[in-house]
Amino acid sequence: MSKKTSVWCLSLLSLTAFFTPLLSQQQSVFEIAGISVGNGEKRSFALEVPRGLDEGTNIPITVVHGSDTGPVLLIVAGIHGYEYPPISALHSVQRELDPDQLAGTVILVHIANLPSFLARTIHINPIDGKNLNRVFPGDPNGTQSERIAHIITSLLVDRADYLVDMHGGDGNEALRPYVYWPVSGDSAFDQETRSMALAFGIDHIVVDPVATDGSPSRYTDHTAILRGIHAITTETGQLGNNETVWIDMATDGIWNLLRHLEMVPGQATIVEEVVWLENYFVIPSPSTGIFEATVRDGYLVSEGGLIGRLLDFFGNPTGEVRAPFSGVVNYVIGTPPINQGEPIAMLSRIR
User: If I label 22, which of 172, 215, 221, 302 is the partner at 20 to 30 A Cα–Cα?
Assistant: First the structure.
């Protein structure tokens, strides 16, 4: 879930030109991949990811095309298939969202990484061993994850005015709910994206700078930002469980954001007491073995404070993991297995 900033391939000058909100004109028919959805209609279907270097797959989506004019909001769940609360939240939204009461269009990606979901794998797609949220904007000639990313980018992200990439604490992550606010460097653009992060309603927000060095964007939200599309990433849930408290948190965030964007009736509630976080750092494991955490998600730790202990497979101590600076534990690994180089914990400084 954690990220290091990266970009796609636009210069800073060209980015500035893109940072103007692109409210789409409402059309009588909204079309994706040859499938048409009329005003006041709701359709669910699958986008095909053709076979290439490896087997093909599909992406189940729902398009809700409102009766009134408004923006296009893309909501993505299941980039990591073991993160269930956002998936369940989108099922609820799909059932309850009335196109006759909607201004604009909502695209729901129910499960972006269907192979991971079906195989119950954390982080990676079992077909190619890649993390889908590290290969954007994708490659039509690449492996399955890269082709999924390409389909999402070219058919969905490029149609959107706003994007929410929803995550939920993977099967090994004890995570304190938070939102990533990607920052482009364009003040006016970033303020509108900031308002999205506040409207989602979670009181911990991580400032996430989007780099402009010409490297691939890697992440769903960074890909959108570099196309002039306001985007946030949300984290609701932990350790792969699908309890109602996490589903409701994700669902409530979506509905409040819809009200904030004036896409559905009602007054949005904006969270006021926010813990702003920055300079986040993902601590890698120095070895393979067993990890025992000594902190919990949301803990405050001081520089040098103990994060956890490493053991060999006989239970003998092999080392300790300590905080590189004082800050908040966004997540910590909550299951015993650990491989060298894998994330142990994510730590952020209080802004």
Answer: 215
